[in-house]
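User: Teach me something about this protein's shape.
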Amino acid sequence: KLFEKGIISVEDVQALRYTTQLNKTEIEKSKWAIKEMEGDVATIQKKLDQTRITAPISGTVTSVLLKEGEGVIQGLTNNSGTAIMTIADMTQKGVTVNVREMDVPYLHPGQPVSVTSPNYRDRTFKAAVSRIATTGEADKTTGLIKFKLETLFAEPYPELRLAMSAVVTIEVEKREAALTAPLAAVMSEANPAGGSAGDFVY
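Assistant: First, the predicted structure itself:
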């Protein structure tokens, strides 16, 4: 309309059209540049996320196996990868002991267990049998077959720490008002009439 009224010349109109087209081109370039930068941001964010390692469980870090700057290998199907640290669930603590194969028939999951520690001589910690190994292992010193038995404490007991020494007592059978005697006082003697040997106490 300005051209029709003679306010601007043909050259001005052409210059405005050229400037408008140029601006549109610059806008399109800017849009493509924004898309490229968004892609770069997504790539950088992905790499940043890979630097953040999330544990599959909640717990307490009990040991750090690598130092800052050391490389790690990602775990694959045939490669467990690099261990970075050890995490333990301190709300699920217990004691693992070796038991003789002759004792296994008398043990079962859920059996009451009493645990004492030389670090807390006046305390007895309640626990229960949680698992008995299905396969025994030969003792390297005696050659006797022993089975690993795992126990689980009835409560967290924060005063008990990992790798502390402990003594485990498992209640196999309980009888009220039973006569007791030291094992050393129980003797066995062959039955003169044949049959099984008889037990007696001196």
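Now, about its shape. Strands lie at 60-64, 85-88, 96-100, 112-117, 120-132, 137-138, 145-153, 167-170, 186-189, 198-201. The CA atoms of residues 166 and 185 lie 28 Å apart. If you'd like, I can walk through any region in more detail.
User: That's plenty for now, thanks!
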